[in-house]
Amino acid sequence: MNSIFRRFLRKFVLVFFDDILVYSTTLELHLVLLNETLKILAEHQFYLKPSKCSFGQQQVEYLGHIVSAKEVQVDATKIRAMLEWPQPTSVIELGGFLGLTGYYRKFVKDYRIIAAPLTALLRKGQFQWNSQAEQVFHHLKASHDVHSGARDAKFF
pTM for the complete prediction? Predict the structure, then answer.
Protein backbone atom coordinates (compact mmCIF):
# COMPACT_ATOMS: atom_id res chain seq x y z
CA MET A 1 0.00 0.00 0.00
CA ASN A 2 2.87 2.37 0.77
CA SER A 3 4.24 1.93 -2.73
CA ILE A 4 1.09 3.13 -4.49
CA PHE A 5 0.92 6.23 -2.28
CA ARG A 6 4.69 6.85 -2.10
CA ARG A 7 4.59 10.34 -3.64
CA PHE A 8 1.78 11.43 -1.29
CA LEU A 9 2.97 9.91 1.99
CA ARG A 10 3.19 12.49 4.77
CA LYS A 11 1.89 15.13 2.36
CA PHE A 12 -1.77 14.20 2.75
CA VAL A 13 -1.81 10.43 3.26
CA LEU A 14 -0.67 8.14 6.06
CA VAL A 15 -0.74 4.37 5.55
CA PHE A 16 -0.34 1.60 8.09
CA PHE A 17 -0.95 -1.81 6.53
CA ASP A 18 -4.55 -1.43 5.31
CA ASP A 19 -5.41 1.68 7.33
CA ILE A 20 -5.34 4.86 5.28
CA LEU A 21 -5.66 8.35 6.69
CA VAL A 22 -6.25 11.26 4.30
CA TYR A 23 -5.80 14.62 5.97
CA SER A 24 -6.14 18.27 5.00
CA THR A 25 -6.76 21.71 6.43
CA THR A 26 -10.07 22.50 4.69
CA LEU A 27 -13.09 20.53 3.57
CA GLU A 28 -12.66 21.72 -0.02
CA LEU A 29 -9.07 20.52 -0.15
CA HIS A 30 -10.06 17.31 1.61
CA LEU A 31 -12.55 16.46 -1.13
CA VAL A 32 -9.89 16.97 -3.81
CA LEU A 33 -7.34 14.83 -1.94
CA LEU A 34 -9.90 12.17 -1.14
CA ASN A 35 -10.87 11.97 -4.81
CA GLU A 36 -7.20 11.54 -5.75
CA THR A 37 -6.80 8.82 -3.12
CA LEU A 38 -9.89 6.94 -4.30
CA LYS A 39 -8.68 7.10 -7.91
CA ILE A 40 -5.34 5.58 -6.93
CA LEU A 41 -7.07 2.81 -5.00
CA ALA A 42 -9.35 2.05 -7.97
CA GLU A 43 -6.42 2.03 -10.41
CA HIS A 44 -4.74 -0.62 -8.28
CA GLN A 45 -7.97 -2.57 -7.74
CA PHE A 46 -8.19 -1.96 -4.01
CA TYR A 47 -11.67 -1.85 -2.54
CA LEU A 48 -12.99 -0.14 0.56
CA LYS A 49 -15.32 -1.65 3.11
CA PRO A 50 -17.93 1.09 3.75
CA SER A 51 -18.44 0.08 7.39
CA LYS A 52 -14.73 0.74 8.05
CA CYS A 53 -14.71 4.19 6.40
CA SER A 54 -15.20 7.65 7.88
CA PHE A 55 -15.15 10.68 5.61
CA GLY A 56 -14.77 14.39 6.34
CA GLN A 57 -14.21 13.97 10.08
CA GLN A 58 -12.87 16.85 12.17
CA GLN A 59 -10.84 14.39 14.20
CA VAL A 60 -10.16 10.67 14.04
CA GLU A 61 -8.59 7.96 16.14
CA TYR A 62 -5.62 6.55 14.24
CA LEU A 63 -3.10 4.09 15.65
CA GLY A 64 -3.70 5.12 19.25
CA HIS A 65 -3.66 8.84 18.47
CA ILE A 66 -6.42 11.41 18.13
CA VAL A 67 -5.63 13.38 14.97
CA SER A 68 -7.19 16.71 14.00
CA ALA A 69 -6.16 19.47 11.61
CA LYS A 70 -4.43 21.33 14.43
CA GLU A 71 -2.89 18.67 16.64
CA VAL A 72 -2.13 15.07 17.40
CA GLN A 73 -2.89 13.75 20.88
CA VAL A 74 -2.42 10.50 22.72
CA ASP A 75 -5.73 8.64 22.91
CA ALA A 76 -7.15 9.27 26.40
CA THR A 77 -7.74 5.54 26.94
CA LYS A 78 -3.99 4.96 26.47
CA ILE A 79 -3.17 7.70 28.97
CA ARG A 80 -5.58 6.12 31.44
CA ALA A 81 -3.89 2.74 30.92
CA MET A 82 -0.50 4.31 31.69
CA LEU A 83 -1.76 6.12 34.77
CA GLU A 84 -3.45 2.98 36.13
CA TRP A 85 -0.51 0.66 35.38
CA PRO A 86 0.44 -1.15 38.61
CA GLN A 87 4.02 -1.20 39.81
CA PRO A 88 5.84 -3.84 37.76
CA THR A 89 7.00 -6.93 39.61
CA SER A 90 8.81 -8.62 36.72
CA VAL A 91 10.78 -7.91 33.57
CA ILE A 92 7.71 -8.83 31.49
CA GLU A 93 5.46 -6.37 33.32
CA LEU A 94 8.10 -3.63 33.11
CA GLY A 95 8.59 -4.35 29.41
CA GLY A 96 4.86 -3.93 28.87
CA PHE A 97 4.85 -0.58 30.63
CA LEU A 98 7.90 0.67 28.73
CA GLY A 99 6.40 -0.59 25.48
CA LEU A 100 3.24 1.44 26.05
CA THR A 101 4.97 4.61 27.23
CA GLY A 102 7.69 4.24 24.60
CA TYR A 103 5.12 4.13 21.80
CA TYR A 104 4.24 7.72 22.78
CA ARG A 105 7.84 8.84 23.50
CA LYS A 106 7.59 11.71 20.99
CA PHE A 107 5.20 13.41 23.39
CA VAL A 108 7.74 13.36 26.25
CA LYS A 109 10.88 15.47 26.06
CA ASP A 110 13.99 13.38 26.81
CA TYR A 111 11.97 10.17 27.12
CA ARG A 112 15.02 7.98 26.49
CA ILE A 113 17.00 9.69 29.26
CA ILE A 114 14.09 9.62 31.71
CA ALA A 115 13.34 5.94 31.04
CA ALA A 116 17.00 4.79 31.10
CA PRO A 117 16.98 3.53 34.72
CA LEU A 118 13.92 1.36 33.99
CA THR A 119 15.34 0.18 30.68
CA ALA A 120 18.47 -0.96 32.54
CA LEU A 121 16.28 -3.21 34.70
CA LEU A 122 15.27 -5.17 31.58
CA ARG A 123 18.77 -6.64 31.24
CA LYS A 124 19.10 -10.27 32.22
CA GLY A 125 19.44 -10.63 35.97
CA GLN A 126 19.07 -6.89 36.61
CA PHE A 127 15.42 -6.60 37.70
CA GLN A 128 15.53 -5.23 41.21
CA TRP A 129 12.88 -2.63 41.94
CA ASN A 130 14.19 0.21 44.11
CA SER A 131 13.34 3.79 45.04
CA GLN A 132 14.93 5.19 41.86
CA ALA A 133 12.83 2.81 39.73
CA GLU A 134 9.73 3.84 41.67
CA GLN A 135 10.49 7.53 41.14
CA VAL A 136 11.11 7.09 37.40
CA PHE A 137 7.98 4.93 37.05
CA HIS A 138 5.81 7.71 38.53
CA HIS A 139 7.64 10.40 36.54
CA LEU A 140 6.89 8.56 33.27
CA LYS A 141 3.25 8.24 34.25
CA ALA A 142 3.02 11.96 35.02
CA SER A 143 4.83 12.82 31.77
CA HIS A 144 2.02 11.24 29.77
CA ASP A 145 -0.87 13.16 31.32
CA VAL A 146 -3.63 14.56 29.11
CA HIS A 147 -2.22 18.09 29.05
CA SER A 148 1.27 17.14 27.90
CA GLY A 149 -0.04 14.88 25.16
CA ALA A 150 -0.68 17.29 22.28
CA ARG A 151 1.65 18.07 19.42
CA ASP A 152 1.36 20.08 16.25
CA ALA A 153 -0.33 17.97 13.56
CA LYS A 154 2.79 18.22 11.35
CA PHE A 155 4.62 16.01 13.86
CA PHE A 156 2.59 12.93 12.90
Answer: 0.77
